[in-house]
Records
---
Amino acid sequence: MSDLTTTPVLELRDVTRIHGSGVTAVHALRGVSLSVQAGELVAVMGPSGSGKSTLLNVAGGLDSVTTGAVLVEGVDLATLSKADLAAVRRRAAGYVFQDLNLIPTLTAAENVALPLELDGTSVRESRRLAVDSLEAVGVAELAGRYPDEMSGGQQQRVAIARALVGDRRLVLADEPTGALDSETGEAVLRLLRRRVDEGAAGVLVTHESRHAAWADRVVFLRDGTVVDSTSYSVEADAAGALS
Amino acid sequence: MAQLETDDDGRVVYEITAAGRTEVAQWFQEPVRRETAPRDELAIKLAVAVTAPDVDVTAIVQTQRGETMRTLQQLTRLKRDADEDADLAWLLVLDRLIFDAEAEARWLDHCESRLARKAGEKAVRRPASGRSPRAAQGSAR
């Protein structure tokens, strides 16, 4: 049994991911190691094709690694059966994508409740937790609305509510502000930050340094390799940025 | 400005004159013109570095990007702590500083890409075997 108070919520150990084989093989990730604790938001930056999205996909069990290991709350995803891996994806990790992926024929509350219902939670309990989650992101009043009745920013808030509904402690966000204007995008980042401050662990993939700056740590990828990493230091005098 | 009087605490009280009001109104109406580029030490450093022998320009870019990113994180922390209603003027100034720092980070990314492309072109032009660039490209396929 892992000690969840010290075990990282997410850990990548020397992960390599190769797509294809032989002369056409593409090394998407080359020996990447990364650890994300509860209450920590890590941003991943890099140019197109640097491996950012692959990193997020292997972190959430949407893609498998070629070598190395991915652990979510201390559990090595490679040791799980397909059914158990699907359960981890439903229970432990939440995803926020640029294109939202809300189901258009379901209301906001139904969209948020869906992963819980798929996991066997009763409809009544799922709806209750969905409304709680919508309330936490400030859009409880939209519970009965369909996606096409909401703005882009409202839809993204619903997507974050879905990502963090129930007991999930890991949120994986791939360019979550990509389709939003500057101010709405900032509101989404503020929300993501708040949920992490409340105890979730987060990985934010972005190509915009202004958005990455909301993270505690910024990791730079190039050609599938971590080339640099910066951390925000609480000890550093924030006002130093103005001197 | 016209000086009125000194208050009980010894502070001098001033009042804006009619001419001053006109000037301020004009200042608000006119756009700010950037007629001279300010001296930019970072741009100068990189410009010198690419012409100097034995300087790892990519390392300079990466070191600077880390520093720029830390500045962005510090500014963002100040913004997170600010009150959106009570600190509006402060937030506008912070936004300006954040956008400036972001522009610097984007410029550094651009420099890194340009340097990588140039390095690739040089490698093709000067293949180790001394063969022509066309032959070198062919063998890379």
---
Amino acid sequence: MSNQSSIKNQFPIFQKHPDLVYLDSPATTLKPQSVIDSLLSYYTDYTANVHRGIYKSAERSTKEYEETREVVARFIHAKDSKEVVFTKGTTEALNLLVYAWGRKYIQKDDEIAITVMEHHSNFVPWQQLAFELGADLKVIDITDDGLLNIYNSKGEIDLSAIVTSKTKLLSLTYVSNMLGTINPIKQIIDCAKKINPQIVIVVDGAQAVSHFEINVQELGCDFFVFSGHKLMGPTGTGVLWGKYQLLQNMYPFHFGGEMIQDVSLDHTTFKDAPNKFEAGTPHIAGIIALKSAINFVQEVGFNHIQHYEQQLTLLAKNELERNFGSEIIIYGPKDIRDRAGLLSFSFGSYHSHDIAQILDEDDVCVRAGHHCTMPLHKRLNVVASTRASFYIYNTEKDVEKLVNGLEKVRKVLKIK
Amino acid sequence: MSIYQEIILDHYQYPHNHGHLTEPNYKTKVNNPLCGDEIEMEVNISNNQVEQISFFGHGCAISQASASILTDFVKGKSVSELQNLQKDSIMNLLGIELSPNRLKCALISLEALHKLLKECK
């Protein structure tokens, strides 16, 4: 399924809005028909709660739900599907780690390391935990090119300024949602674990999973989190993967139904992971449809996805620079191979909200603002930027409409 | 209808009452860190009446144009009259419709005005 128009045809939103130019996939991707069908089928054919009913539809919903766990495990090359915990998204997965792992293992004067390019969801929870416990928060800076500032003069990764024997945790993103930077995660993990073999490493994969293959065992991380809705799945779905012993040793997160083994007046025991972290009725339809999303991604294939979005991003970068020259500043790595399919930029002295609004008049959807990365914007010394992304349903025509839209911005606002 | 109507663009490109007063009675500053809009506002009030007003700041076209339009409107008005100024009056002055996301851009100058009026009570 690598023919472009056949891929785009799988997204029914374009039948309703044929002129839509959707350049905001890092916020959430569009959904293919198979995912929508899967949601619908649960609600029209076999609605039932999971893990409890002794009747046919309940058995089917449980089976479909648990199948997604298997599919996710294979998708990220986990050792076992019981290492896969369903959450409502990356944000919840990271907060789960703060409450269930962080509060158990981090103590006063311990160190927590993150980077300045983190999304607020991988920045604020650790920052607040550090404040609460009196731990030290260490923040890895970036270079002016938007790469992590972790290289020594020989060009090798050197974390000795950040990771010490007191660093309990390093949590960092695989791909920056603003700069597009793809971080050399495996090398970073190797280097950090060499300095401190006890360190626990969390990888925020929210912006990575839709672009290239993930192998958590090869990466050597301890936890890996991502959202289903950035992978063409439904909103309200996400995954926390963790090494099983770590999951087993953690506190529970939410208390309630389905996560308990036995409850008495004077004590309660909990189920094993992953059920211990899945209290209450989950987003059953969504988790089931996540399986269809992963199947869809795999059918399109990461080779095609990577090649296609890189080509389109390069075209967009060249076109923006050719048409607007020094009027446009594109943030992040210069080398297209170091970035995923997105471009954040400043355009003249026009405010990103005005840019986005004028582009919207011609159905071009871009993101405007700080993209939930205020520390990064402060580091770059900009208040807000405009972000355009390119994914499998975008075309060269979309790039043209973006360029035309920016020309219109200049015409309408014409600041002297 | 585009929100970038001629009146908005005129005020954005050639803002009225833009700059600083030589000796303001009161001044204030309001910002929205989420989008970077910032408005400094200065007034001279005597006998309960706005005699001079100016603003200075940066941000999107809507925030800057609405500050220009609002400062035009308040000149010569009494403090008690201005204290009742609400969102709807601003929208009438601008003559456009805004989505909830852009409303805060239009209202930042009203926020600055109300903050000033509170100080001079």
---
Amino acid sequence: MTVFQDYGNALLPWRTVRGNVALGIEEQVSGAALDDRIDAALAMVGLQQAAREYPAKLSGGMQQRLQIARALALQPKVLLMDEPFGALDAMTKAKLQDQLRHIQASTGTTIVFITHDVDEAVYLGDRVILLAGSPGRIASELRSALPATRDQISTKEMPEYLHARHELLERLHGAAR
Amino acid sequence: MTPRLRQTRQWLLPAALLVAWQLAATAQEGPSILPSPVEIGQTLLETLVSGRLPADALHTFAAAIASWVICLLIGIPLGMALGSAERLRVALSLFIELLRPLPAVALIPLAILVFGFSWQTEITVTVFASVWPLILASRSGIERMHPRILEVVSTLHLRRWHALRCVITPAAFRQILVGAKLSFSLCLVVSVVAEMVGNPAGLGWGLVSAQEAMRASETFAYLFAIGILGVCANCALDFAVKHLFPGLAQGN
Amino acid sequence: MNKMSRGLLSLATPIALLGVWGALGDPASPVAPPPQTWLTQAAVMLAAGDLQLAVLATLKTVLLATLVAGIAGTVMGATLGARRAISDTVAPTLEFLRSIPPPTIVPVAMLLIGAGTGLDISVVALATVWPVMLNVLQATRSIHPTLISTGHTLRLSPWSRTRNIYVPCILPGVIAGLRVAAPLAIIVALLVEMLATRPGIGRLLLTAQRDFDAPGVFALLLTVGLIGVGVNGAFEWLERSAAKRLPNAMR
């Protein structure tokens, strides 16, 4: 189950927010059960207010949350996210990162998150895997020493965070050489 | 120049032309070949009231609509199939390029051979002439679709029919609609032409029989009616589209 | 798929269709005679001289009418487009006239112009002048005012201005209009021949249909197709060579 970076092309502009979330599950579920699933997904990303809007009316961050909600509605075991926050501004990115960790904690889904942003990788990840070369192979892996609950301010000042970041950047430079 | 002044001049021109025409027609000596606008108006009214013009107009309109529906049923699936399957597109490309430019007029005698002078002739010729814009537009709608849409379909594990109905067709809809409108105008025109030569009914036939009987003002009246029908029908279609598919503005 | 296999694949469909038709078709069929019969019938018509005469008659009408429409349309379009005031005033009237389908003008034109040799060309020209005129009008309106000022600033003679500024700007519009007018001319010419029983392929088609000569009808359809390809091809070539010789920077 993939979430794409270019949410604009991945959403259906002719369906409302609810309609977009329903797309993956409407063949299997219907009626009240369908509505419940949609509501749950929207609640997880915080889009309940915008349920009847069309994607074109939403901001970039909200559209990406909509895509995530659509993915979550399928209750996947594994979620592949391909640089999902790359097209968003820094503040929206930070908010969504926190929301994503929250979602992962409540659903238990395994999330494979692809990013070029070292800070994002360290902040979000429980395990950070470094890919190198083309075709990519796993160059090295880092297990996070950060606590389960994180926040944008204090976590980024922790020594474990700075150490992990340092380590990762060194390995990146090493792999580049 | 203010908009009002410009508008007045725009309306003044046809009014002036009509007046000039009227004067020219009344100034003719002897049997006139050019009927005056007043005469044409009178004839128009007569044919309207007698019910002949409305009946003919209804026939033409019905034939055009029927042909259009057939075009939609054939053209959209075929066009979408062409857009999705590369091999099919290539296989049929030369075939389509050879058939498409054949003028409807030239096909009428063939249709008469097969169906005689009948409504089947009219509809067959009209469909043959008007289906191409729909095929090409539907094909284009699929080809222009963003590849991301197909990836979304596969990542959501949507079943084929569901994907076709809820994702792919709406994505191509804009283009399909353009083709459908073009096809509709063609259906109207070709129906009239087919009636002129191949099916003695409707406005086309009324036009030609008036001309053959040298009833000049009636000929003009029918020409006017054809023009008006075309304008009204196309406007009505635009109106219907705007109201049935307000969500079209939501599309990218 | 490389270019060659594409070409072969697309060629395969019509050939296969014709082949199957030729092999399985019933030569005596009143509505679907196999392709061989078309050629035999075409040969018959050629021998009798009918086919060539008809083709020449239709071609003559089409080409002459397109020429007349081209000249008249260019003159009218350039005149109406020269001043914004004029083109604005004329716009709605032209829109209305444009919505009259050219084939439907034929009966009216036949009444007004009357029988005679000039009928074909006049009627077809009348029906096909619109695309040329509208295109030229548009092209004239879109000549950038700076270009016009340049002509005056350089104190060019009217002849020089016309030749070096106006003509290159308008020419693409003329050719675009002709490219639309030519196929339209074929359609209208056929229609005139059918309605007014003037010599040409249209009349031959009706004769063949009345004689229940199905192979003849198909042979004539083929001929019409070939003429269409020829005429369209000629005008497309014209458009391409004009585009090559006129600098794109002007547009």
